[in-house]
Amino acid sequence: MIVVAITGASGVIYGIRLLEALKELNIENSLIISDAAKTVIKSESDWKIDDIIELADNYYEFDDLTASVNSGSFKFESLAIVPCSMKTLSSIANGYGDNTITRVADVSLKERRTTVIVPRETPLRTAHIQNMLTLSQEGAVILPAMPGFYSNHYSIDDQIDFVVGKILDSLKIENNLFKRWE
Fold this sequence. Notes:
UbiX-like; prenyltransferase; 7 helices; alpha/beta; 15% strand; globular; Rossmann fold; flavin prenyltransferase activity; six-stranded parallel beta sheet; Flavoprotein
């Protein structure tokens, strides 16, 4: 099972598209949406929160510190935080697990499960880069939402699929969401 967390950074469409791809690939997933992400979703998309939740097999509330996913004994294969706000990134890097997303990230890292973090901010402060370095040193994959242009597909959907395809690659999930370099 893949846990997908959507935080309040710009680029929530990456998380939504990842959920769609996991559903298309028939891969079980769980979802957590931060309160800030719900605001961003309304601002950046036409998606309804309930429709996004329906893409997931399981849903956990953002402020439920008793959620089963927050325990190391709960079995999941990997975690993708898409997009990841700098606040969430900082909390995870500094071991501050005050909500379901930061707690599941703590579990994923301490249990050495695949953890993919997709920061969506530019430009970056030194503190942001240091937090990414800390998480990378702990085994997280830092996958900034930086689309590639070598496939000659330039639509927004193509660029979203490129980033989501790279996320799926990092999760070791076969996909054909983007044209690979030949």
